[in-house]
Amino acid sequence: MLKLNLTVLTVTMASLALPNAANAESWICEHSNLVREITVKHETENAAPCTVVYDKSSEGLGSKIVWSATFDGAYCDAKANGLAEKLQGLGWACTQF
Fold it and tell me: Which residues have a Cβ under 8 Å from the Cβ of 2 and sit 6 or more positions away?
């Protein structure tokens, strides 16, 4: 029984480390010589409050907060993921980290 529990724990821990919309914090998106960064920032170690920062510094436009949530951290993750998917649809290459 102990061996089975360790296997389940190992699989669970490994799945938590995989990047996905639920735990991704940042995306770097590139197109030609342009780079944009999408970052989910948390004020505490809790999921909320949170903000989504969109950085277009390579275009001379700086960064700005495009979404925020006080109580639902999943909102920020969903919005950031949606923006990365939109950019990919427009020909940008985005990588989560």
Answer: none
Strands 26-31 and 34-42, sheet pairing: antiparallel
Give pLDDT, residue 92: 98
Sites in the chain below the pLDDT cut of 70? 1-24
- The dihedrals phi and psi of 24, each to the nearest 5 degrees, come to -70, 145
For residue 87, what are the contacts with CB-CB under 8 A and spacing of at least 6?
29, 31, 36, 94
Structure tokens at 50: 């949170």
Name the residue among 80, 79, 69 with its Cα closest to residue 28. Answer: 80
